């Protein structure tokens, strides 16, 4: 993947990080696949949070797509 796309994905992730940190969590960018799926790993309190999948789709994925609209989805890796 090109560096511009990775930079834009990180912009989206960085925009949501303060909200995750407020609850004692974070995330790590793992990779973007050739089919434009972004993979992240939840860290801290986010790993065991009951609503982390809702946060993933309604917060993280939305934020990433704002900066990189070509991304198809954001998924988690344990």
Short synopsis of the structure:
With 78 residues, the protein is an alpha+beta fold.
Largest sheet: 3 strands, mixed
Helix tally equals 2
Report the strand count.
3
Order of helices and strands: HEEHE
Shape: globular
- Multimeric state: single chain
Provide the residue-averaged pLDDT: 90
Portion of residues in beta strands equals 25-35%
Secondary structure: helix percent: 40-55%
Low-confidence stretches: none
Order of strands, main sheet, comes to: 1-2-3
Cα Rg: 12 Å
End-to-end distance: 22 Å
Which structural category do the helix and sheet elements fall into? Answer: alpha+beta
SSE order and pairing:
Elements: H1 3-22, E1 25-32, E2 37-44, H2 52-67, E3 73-76
Parallel strand pairs: 2-3
Antiparallel strand pairs: 1-2
Helix pairs in contact: 1-2
